[in-house]
């Protein structure tokens, strides 16, 4: 029966008078896809592709149903759920396909990594302590929802009605599966529980996921620029960032990540549509409408409605609106988050007077203001952290109208006290007695404020360790990098050189080497990184002697050319300065000194050029993609990148040093006929090779690797200027453990967008950017 679909598609195309190329252009699919489906080479027709073909052919309802039925029959799942009414996230494929088996295995690994990550996130959010806050929703206004015929994926002429999409948090996966199009928009005001719902959807969907189903993955869509990257390309980049192993060449695409996205094995859960820049929301919605991928999108209502007004609703998408918490919800939840009060009534808690005010005097100023605030899970969670989890804090103070003039002041109070609460000294964590060290709340607020301000400047919710220095001016980054390279290479030259020459000579030589190296690497950093206002991304590879892929040879050629050029510039600059310096010391006169400078510049330029090019090319030939589970967290990626850089330098440094030493010896032997007699010996080659290997490795590592830039800017410069603590990793991990940050793959994010906005705004207040005084 495998030829039934192929023959039917071919006949319908001929009846429509279309060539394969014409049908491909009209349907928006590849010619190779259509050719493979008609010849039987492709045994996995996706339902979305079949629907696109049916639309392009302009089929009548009966012919459309016949084509869809043949597609389902062809996949060998005719006895399972009818794919014409199931949503497109359920991909049916022929089990025997080697390609699909490979992708299914990769998808299983991805599903395990995603499940482990978000289970940890739920634990850190205390979602189940004592039980999840009720998150409910109702259908969104009709103007924000597509036609129900499109949502139901019905052919023309079929009667339809709206779906019942109301539900609660634990129903979200089931509600989504009732949507045939597989597209759902979740709307909710700030703090209403959109992210919690997205996490629960991912975990519930994974719990009941079949091997062939798409893997739900949460993406922070606020970092997407639809004018610069297509949606699929952006998904691929995000996947390879969080799972570097997916950068490996795929069986049906440039990478495993691209193959997963293109084959429909990734179900995008797009969190934070409202975080996209104002001018990019319309092109973002248009780009999403240009795809047929199933997805779940979260957004604040106003921002989504504004984008809809400018273009259209999300095609084939249903929409729901998250509801506010009720007084009954608060009465059930808050008393169970705190200890029982002493006295005659063992069930009485500190929240009882507050709940009584809300229940008995709902129209009083205090009751109305607090009721307005405690309608979102975010504010209830903050109130719990500040009052239930903190001894000595009485929630009755929330009813003080002289202290809090309105709901805005109450919200600012809860946000402002959240940091002080989570960083309060705890008796169980005494200095020197446990892993968690004490952090002064004011200093923690200042550092977190800088991080929030940094994200605001970059217009992204993703706190990427390799971009922490990107908030600095480009000139500052370049100067700091050049200075660090200058100091590092100069010190290496002085320390190693004293084994061969006098200290006085090496001080002058170290100064020369440091200045030239700093200048050269500074210029390279400016043109390769700073000029584009970018950051050096973490290496997605590791070193491997065997099992290399063919793509490494293509990467080796540009690096070879870059090495030749940089080596020539550095070598000529160093040699010229050294030659002129020696001429001045020996009082040879300016013309002779310049001549010696040109001669030495030529020798050193050729030696360093012929060494740097092959050394950088060798690095490319030894690189291979990282394992898929190598980046389970930002710290994991940092450590992995550190090991990668160290291994690279352990290969590059000795190779570069040996080639410089041998190259200098060869050049000195070949050039006397052109430049005259030269004084050179084996000791000079050994010294030059040793210093060059160590200094060159340090210069390259500090300026042109993500880990090196992390060390220069985030571990030295930002702590030196007081904007971050000296132990940045420890601080970020501690903030994650305390519930201020969350992990999203290889990046951190503030757990609450409102908290990020509040900290950034507080940091920018007049006088707030001054670092707090140290205590003790």
TrEMBL record:
Keywords: Membrane, Transmembrane, Transmembrane helix. Residues 9-64 form the HTH cro/C1-type domain. The keyword Amino-acid biosynthesis does not apply. It comes from the Bacteria. Gene3D superfamilies: lambda repressor-like DNA-binding domains (1.10.260.40), P-loop containing nucleotide triphosphate hydrolases (3.40.50.300). InterPro entries: Cro/C1-type_HTH, Lambda_DNA-bd_dom_sf, NACHT_NTPase, P-loop_NTPase. The chain crosses the membrane at residues 479-500, 512-536, 557-577, 603-622, 649-671, 691-713. The keyword Membrane applies. This is NACHT domain-containing protein.
């Amino acid at each position: 029966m495998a030829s039934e679909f192929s023959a039917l598609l071919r006949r319908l195309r001929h009846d429509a008078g279309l060539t394969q190329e014409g049908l491909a252009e009209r349907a928006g699919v590849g010619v190779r896809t259509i050719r493979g489906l008609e010849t039987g080479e492709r045994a996995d027709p996706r339902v979305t592709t079949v629907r696109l073909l049916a639309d392009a052919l302009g089929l009548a309802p009966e012919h459309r149903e016949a084509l869809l039925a043949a597609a389902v029959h062809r996949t060998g799942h005719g006895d399972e759920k009818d794919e014409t009414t199931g949503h497109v996230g359920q991909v049916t494929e022929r089990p025997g396909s080697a390609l699909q088996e490979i992708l299914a295995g990769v998808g299983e690994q991805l599903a395990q990594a995603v499940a482990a990550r978000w289970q940890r996130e739920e634990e850190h959010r205390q979602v189940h302590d004592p039980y999840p806050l009720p998150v409910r929703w109702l259908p969104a206004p009709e103007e924000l929802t597509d036609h129900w015929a499109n949502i139901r994926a019905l052919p023309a002429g079929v009667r339809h009605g709206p779906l019942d999409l109301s539900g609660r948090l634990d129903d979200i996966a089931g509600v989504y599966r009732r949507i045939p199009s597989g597209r759902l928009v979740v709307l909710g005001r700030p703090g209403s529980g959109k992210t919690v719902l997205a996490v629960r959807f991912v975990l519930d969907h994974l719990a009941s996921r079949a091997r062939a189903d798409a893997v739900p993955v949460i993406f922070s869509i606020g970092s997407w620029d639809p004018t610069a990257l297509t949606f699929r390309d952006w998904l691929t980049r995000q996947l390879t960032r969080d799972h570097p192993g997916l950068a490996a060449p795929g069986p049906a695409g440039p990478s495993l990540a691209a193959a997963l996205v293109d084959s429909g094995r990734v179900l995008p859960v797009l969190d934070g549509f409202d975080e996209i820049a104002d001018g990019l929301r319309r092109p973002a919605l248009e780009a999403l409408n240009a795809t047929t991928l199933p997805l779940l999108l979260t957004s604040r209502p106003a921002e989504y409605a504004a984008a809809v007004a400018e273009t259209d609703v999300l095609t084939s998408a249903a929409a729901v609106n998250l509801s506010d918490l009720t007084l009954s919800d608060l009465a059930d939840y808050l008393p169970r988050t705190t200890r029982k009060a002493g006295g005659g009534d063992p069930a009485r808690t500190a929240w009882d007077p507050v709940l009584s005010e809300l229940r008995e005097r709902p129209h009083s100023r205090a009751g109305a203001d607090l009721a307005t605030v405690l309608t979102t899970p975010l504010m209830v969670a903050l109130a719990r952290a500040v009052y239930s989890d903190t001894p000595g804090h009485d929630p009755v103070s929330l009813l003080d109208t002289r202290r809090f003039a309105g709901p805005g002041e109450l919200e600012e109070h809860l946000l402002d006290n959240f940091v002080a609460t989570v960083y309060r000294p705890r008796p169980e964590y005494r200095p020197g007695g446990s892993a968690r060290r004490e952090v002064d709340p004011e200093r923690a607020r200042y550092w977190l404020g800088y991080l929030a301000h940094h994200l605001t400047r970059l217009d992204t919710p993703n706190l990427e360790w390799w971009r922490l220095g990107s908030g600095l001016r480009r000139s500052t980054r370049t100067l700091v990098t050049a200075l660090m390279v200058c100091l590092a290479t100069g010190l290496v030259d002085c320390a190693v050189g004293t084994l061969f020459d006098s200290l006085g000579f090496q001080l002058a030589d170290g100064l020369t080497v440091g200045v030239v190296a700093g200048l050269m690497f500074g210029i390279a950093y400016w043109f390769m990184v700073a000029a584009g206002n970018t950051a050096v991304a973490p290496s997605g590879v590791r070193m491997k002697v065997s099992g290399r892929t063919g793509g490494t040879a293509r990467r080796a050629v540009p690096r070879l050319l870059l090495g030749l050029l940089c080596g020539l510039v550095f070598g000529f600059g160093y040699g010229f300065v050294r030659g002129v310096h020696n001429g001045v010391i020996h009082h040879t006169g300016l013309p002779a000194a310049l001549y010696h400078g040109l001669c030495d510049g030529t020798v050193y330029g050729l030696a360093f050029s012929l060494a740097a090019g092959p050394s950088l090319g060798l690095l490319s030939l030894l690189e291979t993609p990282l394992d898929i589970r190598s980046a389970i967290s930002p710290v994991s990626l940092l450590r992995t990148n550190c090991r990668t850089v160290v291994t690279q330098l352990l290969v590059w440094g000795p190779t570069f040093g040996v080639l410089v030493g041998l190259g200098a010896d060869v050049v000195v032997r070949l050039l006397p006929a052109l430049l005259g007699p030269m004084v050179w010996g084996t000791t000079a080659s050994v010294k030059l090779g040793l210093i060059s290997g160590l200094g060159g490795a340090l210069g390259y590592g500090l300026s042109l690797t993500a880990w090196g830039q992390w060390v220069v800017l985030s571990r030295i410069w930002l702590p030196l200027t007081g904007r971050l603590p000296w132990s940045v990793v420890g601080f970020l991990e501690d903030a994650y453990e305390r519930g201020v940050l969350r992990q999203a793959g290889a990046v951190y994010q503030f757990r609450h967008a409102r908290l990020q906005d509040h900290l950034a705004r507080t940091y920018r207040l007049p006088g707030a950017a001054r670092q707090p005084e140290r205590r003790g």
